[in-house]
Design brief:
This is Cupredoxin domain-containing protein. InterPro entries: Cupredoxin, EfeO_Cupredoxin. Keywords: Signal. The protein has two helices and nine strands; from the N terminus they run H-E-E-E-E-E-E-E-E-H-E. It has a five-stranded mixed beta sheet. Helix content is 21%, strand content 41%. It is α+β, with helices and mostly antiparallel strands and 112 residues long. The termini are far apart. It has a single domain, classed as Cupredoxins -  blue copper proteins (Immunoglobulin-like, Sandwich), CATH 2.60.40.420. Strand 5 and strand 6 form a beta hairpin.
């Protein structure tokens, strides 16, 4: 039995392989917010890497991970968990906070 791989099928296979390899290189971080404070704080991630953040909101109120320094963020209802991506970011120190409780939640993202 012979199988014929058309050019479009070959391209699809190549794109799928690249996407899987890229996903394997992504970094995953667990982050929680309780009493409007993020843990761990400060948060450290690798430079030049796309990072998946899984945010566990342990408060009963909505929290929003947000930054004025970089793109990315997520609104998470009280008692819920959500994932999102940030980066890749250059080495440096960035700030992030809960949009609804900025003064209590402001902390740093250290990228190195």
């Amino acid at each position: 039995m012979n199988f014929l791989i058309t050019p479009s099928v070959a391209v699809l296979m190549l794109v799928s392989t690249v996407a899987m390899a890229q996903s394997a290189n992504d970094t995953a971080i667990e982050l929680s917010v309780r009493e409007h404070k993020f843990t761990p704080a400060p948060l450290t991630i690798p430079a030049d890497t796309k990072v998946k953040i899984t945010l566990h909101n342990l408060d009963s109120t909505t929290a929003e991970f947000i930054s004025d320094d970089f793109k990315g963020g997520k609104l998470v209802a009280g008692g819920k968990t959500a994932s999102f991506f940030i980066g890749p970011l250059k080495s440096g120190t960035y700030e992030f906070h809960d949009e609804y409780h900025e003064a209590a939640s402001k902390t740093q993202l250290i990228v190195k």
